[in-house]
Q: What sequence folds into this?
């Protein structure tokens, strides 16, 4: 192996190690998160780490097969984050604001 090939191999291996460590730490945060919002953010970041792992695999194999899969995962991660944020926003509204829009606010 030449110098640049060795350097590329070391960089790709270290990228995979960082992705695996980040994934393990995120799984810990998802399981032990103190609040639902922490778990939602950790799931969103986990989707990004999976995308980064697929990117590292594509770079390692020098194959562009995983690019459409990465794009779909990014879209699903974004829509999932927006859905969770909307759910948490509705759940955490003050009680007086929720009642104002309902039947009790019409009296």
A:
């Amino acid at each position: 192996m030449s110098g640049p090939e060795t350097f590329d191999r070391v960089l790709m291996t270290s990228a995979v190690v960082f992705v695996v460590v980040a994934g393990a730490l995120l799984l810990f945060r998802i399981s032990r998160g103190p609040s639902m919002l922490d778990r939602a953010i950790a799931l969103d970041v986990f989707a990004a780490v999976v995308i980064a792992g697929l990117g590292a695999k594509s770079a390692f194999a020098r194959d562009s097969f995983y690019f459409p899969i990465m794009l779909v995962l990014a879209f699903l991660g974004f829509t999932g984050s927006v859905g969770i944020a909307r759910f948490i926003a509705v759940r955490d509204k003050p009680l007086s604001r929720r009642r104002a829009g309902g039947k009790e606010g019409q009296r």
